[in-house]
Each structure stands twice: as structure tokens, then as C-alpha cells.
Amino acid sequence: MADNNFYLELLKDSNLTNISNEDKEIITIKIWTLLGKVTERYTMGDSSSVPVEIAEELLKSITFLLKKEMKNGKFEVDIFECENLEGVWKDSWITIEKDIAMGKDLLEEVIKTSTGIENISYDDTVMGIEKGLKIYDYRFLAHEVPCSIDYQLSNPVDEDMQGIDFINEYLTRLLFENKFCNNFEKEKIIGILKSYCRDYKGLLINIFEPVLTNVIGLEMLEADIFELEIKSYEREILLYTFKKMNIEEDIIKAASNICNKLKIVSDYEINYVKMTVLNLLPRIKEGIKNNNIENIFLSYKIEEDEVRDIFVSNENMDDERLRGLIEEIRVCRFTKDKIAAIHKEVRSLDDLVEIFNNCIWEDEVEEIVNNLNKEEVEALKYYLNNKLNDNISNTGWEQKFIK
Prior knowledge:
Blueprint: H1 6-11, H2 21-42, H3 52-71, H4 75-81, H5 86-112, H6 120-135, H7 163-181, H8 186-196, H9 208-220, H10 232-244, H11 247-261, H12 267-279, H13 281-290, H14 319-330, H15 335-345, H16 349-359, H17 362-371, H18 374-385, H19 397-402
Helix pairs in contact: 2-3, 3-5, 5-6, 5-7, 9-11, 10-18, 11-12, 14-16, 15-17
């Protein structure tokens, strides 16, 4: 049998970690004695000897069960004062039976709150847990998770958790993810998932995360979070916004606002939302670096190979090219030629603002705005609403635009 100080695992997270070596020896002897009795029960009295591998599993189960009793405040007295540790082990069955009942209740709620969106790993996992709770051998293999759990959560359960503790924590998280998604229309969620992953039914994905991601984006845009979709021009605005803000601080603020809107009041659930949101930070920062957040904040349908007069590239021109375009537009005699140049060349909010600041005069604003598409107009409105100062450009276009 592997030479490991199993009692250290047993005593971890308890108030017994500083006991003397003599007391540790007492605990060790008592647990070895208990292992012999458990082994005899396991073999139904045929033998107190089993293969090493089985003995190790039985010992892990004993450790798991006794640790549960430690949390109930019983263990410290029993282990030192009671000659028969088997009584503590049996008491743990009552505790774990309550946990199993809780697991069944959680599973029932998970089934009731399912989004109804087809995903093989989700369906298989729920069915697997249902079967696993029925065959869970909590007397001899309490530390094992008696089923395959393939569906990915946005925040995975700590792998140090075992047995029914792991199952119940998994179900608690899954239940919240279901409840969150149920605030939104099923067809809109499917639209987001199709952009997230074409084979969303067959692959190992998480449904909740892309939904929350778009909701965060819409909240930061001060848009309707229940729409779910983030359009191309909104992504451009969002990218521009990210470049000007303290991302972590503002994204957490958006998460809090969402919890308020959806009446999420449990500290556990609020923290779950914030954990998921913070997990987005590396992706967002990388997107800013690459001037592209298209794969983070999703539209219902990604049109490929289509030429559009909206801000889809999220890439600013290099300085030399922008200066050349500004000079070209400045010398245009007719406003319609300026409009044509904007439609042909400009693909980012930063570049559009630079053009307006240097080339578009007050008397031209109305005609140009009437010929811009909706996305370009909305982007300019957002820019003006979120300017860090009230300074007016040399051309004064802002005053005319606001009117």
C-alpha cells in the first residue's frame, strides 16, 4: 500500500492539525483498525484481506466520511474518547444520506430549469448524474463520483472535492447557469451559440458563458441586455470604449448592474457572475491588442465574404495612410465625394472621428449624416456621449451633429 500519511489529509482544514506525534499514532492505529472492519464488511465477512488497490480505495472512502463528520463538530471528541471509531464512521452515513437527498433535489431543479437547448454533453451529464445518485456506494466508495460529468461549467468545480460534495457543488453551479439563461429567449440564445460554435449541439461547450459575455457587452453599451445580440457597429463602439477605460473595474460594475436587473441577490450567485466575467479579461485584453473582439462579443449570424459599409474590421489605419486620406478629403470640392471616400476607406470609429475633426465642416454635417448608415451615425453619437472632455474640434462638427 502506498506509504502516505493519510491522517494528514484527514486532519486538513480541521483544528487538529497541531496535535502531537503520539496522538497522530493513536489516530493512525484507530483508522487502521477501522479499515480492517470496513474491509470485512466489504467482503461480507469472507476475508479481512483484499488487494492493495481496493484497500486504498476503502481507506480514501473512510477518510472522506470521517472528514464530513469533522465538519459536524463530532470528530474531535469521538476520535480521542471513543475506543470504537466505527461508530463515527456509521454516523457519517446519516450525514451523507442527507447530502444525497439534497443532490436529488438539486438535480430535480436542474431538470426543471433546463433551457431546452440541445447539447449532447449536457443531456448525457444530467442523465449520468441521475443514474449515479441511484448507485452511489457511499458506505465503501463515498469519495468516488459515480458518473461521467462531461458538460463544462463556466467555473469548474474544484477537483479536490470528492463524492457527493463534488456532485452537489456541480449541480448548484449548473442550476444557477440554467436560471440565468432562462431570463432570455431560447431562440436568441441559440442564435448566439451558432456564432459561438457551429456544432453547439455536439461539442463540449458551455451555454451560459457566451450568453453572459454578450449581456456584459450590452450593459456596457447601455443597450437592452435582453436582445443578446451585439451588432458589428456595437462591437466597434465596445472596442473603442475598452481602450479608454479601466476594464476590470468597469466590467465588474457592469456585472453588478446585471445582477440588479435580473434580481440576482445571493452572494454565491453574484460572485459566480463576477468570476465568469473576470475570466473574460485575458481574452478582452488580447482582443484589444489585436483590434478584434468579434469572437468574444457575438452577433446572431456572422456573414463572411460580404462587403459592408460598417465598422467590422476594428482596425485603425496606420498614421501615414490616415494623413493621406485626410488630405484627400480636405481637397474634395463636393460633399458627396467626401461621403464616398468615408464609405470606401473608413472602418473604425477612431478613424471616422479623425476625419470629422479635420475634414468635415459645420455646413457639411447635415448632408453627410443623412448619407451615413445607421451604424456610423450610432457610433458617432456614442463617441459624443462618452467624450472625456467638452472640447470642440477645429471644424466644429460636434455642435451641428448634436442639433
